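Today's session is about reading a structure prediction critically. Students often jump straight to the picture, but the first step is always the sequence itself: look for stretches that repeat, for charged clusters, for runs of hydrophobic residues. Only then move on to the predicted structure, which in these notes is written as discrete structure tokens rather than atom positions. Here is the chain we will use throughout the hour.
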Amino acid sequence: MTVIKIMPCLDMKNGRVVKGVHFVDIKDAGDPVENAGYYEREGADELAMLDIAATVENRKTRLEWVRNVSKAISIPLTVGGGISTLEDIELVLAAGADKVSMNSAAVKNPDLVKQASKKYGNDKITVAIDARRNEAMPSGFELVVNGGTTPVLKDAVVWAKQCQEFGAGIILPTSMDGDGTQAGYDLEYTNAISSAVKLPVVASGGAGKLEHFYEGVVKGGARILLAASVFHFRLLSIKQVKEYLRDKGIQVNL
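Below is the predicted structure for this chain, in token form.
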């Protein structure tokens, strides 16, 4: 049986952890180094850190944030935001990240996924796929880029399949409709992606209750469960989530 992993996510802006709803209404959620260390002690399997303003502000991921957080933890760290070249990937990995996540840049330049997976190994390359509902798309989900601000008239599930072919190692789909709402993962979207690819899929956007994590695995097909708000604001602990999943028959590392 697959071991399910819990991945808190540090959304970064101006050197602080922040959290919004539907990618807006941003609130402060603390210091990244303190949060990272806390989550490792709590039992997080991995950690994500996303520079949410990098692409919109047309700049690179701030490497000092990566260095500071990576020094504070020993669990794998995935870093995303503003990564658009092989040089960016090199710098982020050198700063202490174990994996990189790319989104808008991969859409604009699919060769980047191919080149990166060939150079660094597909286990280092996550492709994040933000989407919103659009009935005009075959799957019902349209790809959006630039921090959720720009729809690109491309089917999100078709794109996920292409990313698998290009050599991506992990797919991280986030539904704009669910982000930050704590109303549950968008299971329809998560399952559409996990059913279409053989890669590990990260459930992301909207976790608010213990049952949401269970549903992410059983109904969404996810192998990694990402959450931010519930952990940042101490509504749930990682230990609570893992014990709940274990009691439901899901294999986790306690």
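Discussion point for the tutorial: The chain is about 35% helix and 25% strand.
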